[in-house]
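ARCHIVE CARD
Drawer: 12
Card no.: 0347
Subject: one protein chain, sequence and derived structure
Cross-reference: see card 0346
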Amino acid sequence: MNKKLLFRADGNLKTGLGHVYRLLGLVQMLKEEFECIFITNTNTPSAIFSNNYNVLRIPEGINTQEEPNWLKENFQPKNYIIICDGYQFVSEYQKNIKELGFKLMYIDDLISEHMYADIVINHSPEIKQEEYQKEQYTQLALGTKYALLRSEFLNQIDKKRDTIPEKNIFICFGGSDPHGFSYKVSEALLKTAEVDKIFVVIGASTSMNAVIDFSDMMILAMAFPNIIGLLIMSNEVREDLRVYMEKVRTGVIQQFK
């Protein structure tokens, strides 16, 4: 029987959506060859999953320590490979998954845990194998050639791209931006004359308060040039206003109630 794939990651306003999107990129690569099931907790926004994904939610009462047994109760270990991405999947979790008979792949960023997974992927540049503590059977896939990108980005690799002027700035801090970096960086850039245009992409899980703060800041930023222009042209504006009011008084411009 062909192996089936269980993709395991969570995302929310606080932690962001990077782990989820990274695995979704892998799902897109493998969905034609394997049966793929995405497993996540109840806090992960449903909007990031299209109808093409088979998504299963972990019940709220199941914590990380209980999760390996829950997985075994719902999936036969000999038929499934688990692919995990997230900082909660520490050494103990990996060891429990392996002891239950699953094959395990882990997507790593931190190099902070002893690895029990069969395969560990870390696409950070300049990572060396000797930096890892791992089991003898654990295989490491290190470096940027193992970067997990969604098809939207992979399809652009070989396409010719126009050179973007250096004074045009693109800002995106992922799916949630819990620390409000989009607002802070945009505010700082607006104070410099070296920037012509700022393009900001706000993620789907960004809080409404952050969106409102950012919108208020943009409106205020647009108001400054108008205020300065009004001061510079105040004499002309005053004369135009006088002419307008005179036309209203004499009936040239008709008033409607």
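Annotation on reverse: Residues 162-234 form one domain. The mean pLDDT is 84.
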